[in-house]
Specification:
By secondary structure, the protein is an alpha+beta fold. It has ten helices and nine strands. The longest helix has about 35 residues.
Length: about 325
């Protein structure tokens, strides 16, 4: 065992030095992370893999010392080399998978990729890296991967038959990410039953948060097969139609003027109400059974803004009609 003393001592010394340098690096990155420059993502990505880098560096130094030790038998030297190769593959695989996942998430949050990447997208990215790393690891330790790939191909058919529903949801999730009928953050209505903001598109299901602040989980297959109404496509801005009925004795031109004035005055005072295009009034649907029915057309920033806008505009119009002596007919019970 004495021939291994120097390599072991070199491993310990190199690992300790590497860990100290790791601590200094993370400390520097932690200081930079307080500024909005994105270094926080890098610090999170390398926190765990950097420990493996330190061990790999220690192994490399130990192997170099072992190679210079003439009394060391060839077999232990070869084993140290194999351990170093395995450690390198593991460290690179974990580093790439974690870094890729975190940076995809950050780019997604900044919409640098044009759309939020969901849990499914990050899982696929990590899965591809882990599979490639696993195959490289098997090759490094001398395992022939060709028979394994053949067996997986044959066994994959049986697995696919047994997991039809699960795979259907998986491929439906991939289809939703590729076709983009819905995106994370969009306000959608699915099959006329579920309406709310998309929280996540996972490998099996899509989560939608309703306005009541509850989350509904829908299998991806059902989402892909349903009729989807996306209120954020092509843009969040929404045309809001408010019906206004007045007595037949009212002057239609005067009613139109008053309603447009109140809607225009509310722009900038009511959150979510837009001034462009300008509010307008049309005598539509027109002649009701007991009233002249007008429709106020205005624009709101998003689907959820319409509720407050309707509330405020109806109050303003009602007060203005009362002040002007315009009657709103009341149907007999």
């Amino acid at each position: 065992m004495w021939p291994l003393a120097w390599p072991a001592l070199a491993f310990v010394a190199a690992t300790v030095v590497a860990l100290v340098l790791r601590a200094l690096l993370l400390s520097v990155l932690g200081g930079w992370a307080r500024s909005p420059n994105g270094w926080a993502s890098l610090a999170r990505a390398i926190r765990l893999p950097s420990v493996l880098w330190s061990l790999v560096l220690g192994l490399w130094v130990a192997v170099e010392f072992a190679g210079q030790t003439e009394r060391l038998p060839p077999r232990p030297y070869e084993q140290l080399g194999l351990v170093l190769e395995v450690a390198v593959i593991l460290s690179v695989t974990i580093t790439v998978a974690k870094t890729l996942s975190i940076f995809i998430q950050r780019a997604s949050e900044r919409r640098a990729l044009g759309v939020l990447i969901t849990g499914l997208g990050q899982s696929v990215a990590r899965g591809v890296v882990y599979i490639v790393g696993f195959l490289m690891l098997l090759t490094a330790i001398g395992v022939q991967i060709t028979p394994i790939l053949t067996a997986l191909g044959v066994g994959g058919l049986a697995v696919a038959l047994a997991l039809q529903d699960t795979l259907s949801n998986l491929f439906a999730g991939v289809h939703l990410l590729a076709d983009k009928p819905i995106r994370v953050g969009d306000y959608v209505k699915v099959a006329d039953t579920v309406e709310g903001h998309v929280v996540d598109i996972g490998w099996r299901s899509t989560r939608v948060r309703l306005l009541q602040n509850v989350v509904v989980t829908i299998p991806n297959k059902k989402v892909a097969e349903s009729i989807i109404t996306n209120y954020d496509l092509p843009e969040p801005r929404l045309a809001l139609l408010i019906r206004v009925g007045v007595d037949y004795g009212a002057d239609p031109d005067r009613v139109e003027q008053l309603v447009v004035e109140e809607a225009t005055r509310a722009v900038g005072e009511v959150p979510g109400l837009l001034g462009e295009p300008a509010p307008s009034v049309r005598l539509i649907p027109g002649f009701g059974d007991s009233s002249l029915d007008f429709t106020l057309i205005c624009q709101v920033k998003s689907f959820t803004d319409q509720f407050l806008v309707q509330h405020e505009l109806r109050k303003r119009i009602l007060r203005r009609f009362r002040a002007e002596g315009i009657q709103i007919p009341v149907k007999a019970p």
